[in-house]
Amino acid sequence: MLKAPIGILGGTFDPIHIGHLRPAIEAQAALGLAEMRLIPNHIPPHRASPFCSSEQRLAMVALAAAENPGFVVDEREIRRDKASYTIDTLIELRQALPDTPLCFLMGMDSLLSLPGWHRWRELLDHAHLVVSLRPGWQPDYPAEVAELLARQQTQDPQDLHRHRHGHIWLSDNLPIELSATRLRALLAAGQDPRYLLPVSVADYIAQHRLYQPTP
Question: Which residues form the Cytidyltransferase-like domain (predicted)?
């Protein structure tokens, strides 16, 4: 018998903010997820090195998780000494949790760029994909993504409970137009980040003087 599904949300989290957390909270409630695992990345394979150290980003993620019931921190990627690819993490999680459906959260921008991901065709062999969809927005899917949706998309959340992997569910979530890049610029300008990230994370950033302009 399968256990209740869990959510998986990865990222550099530099810093973690409501654009990460609010879609995860909504997915947790809509899908009845037993927990939401936040997995900060140590060495991102497709972007520049993060501004903050791995330990600082891990600390901020831990503070954010503590404010949200059912959220936990998974350190497997932060402890790797090489680039972390999503497929490798999902394979590890599947081996550790053979009877638990895994729901990997991503934004619509990530779904649209999915054919550029490392071993992207194998992702659904290990997890479901839960995609944050902007309400009222009709994305122009690449042909390969459109074909994947035609085969694997479901509108029944219970499919993510009945099967370990293999489905794509589009989440009609509250749109939040906030990126870590924009937030870092705001912080560097000395502006108040209130309501854009958890209070504990904002306090940590202020205490450690993170994202300050270079003298």
Answer: 8-184
Per residue in 14-64, pLDDT (tens digit) is 999 999 999 999 999 999 999 999 999 988 776 678 999 999 999 999 999
Cα separation values, 201 from 10, 48, 73, 102, 180, Å: 17, 22, 15, 27, 13
**50 within 8 A of 21, measured Cβ to Cβ:** no
CA distances from 86 to 41, 66, 73, 91, 155 (A): 10, 24, 16, 9, 24
Provide the residue type at 45 as one letter: P
pLDDT score of 121 more than 90: yes
CA atoms within 13 A on the CB side of 37: 19
In the chain, which ranges are continuous DSSP H helix?
Answer: 18-31, 54-66, 86-96, 108-112, 143-152, 159-162, 180-188, 199-208
For residues 116-126, one letter each, b for 16 or more C-beta atoms within 10 angstroms of the residue's C-beta and e for the rest, the string is: ebeebeebbeb
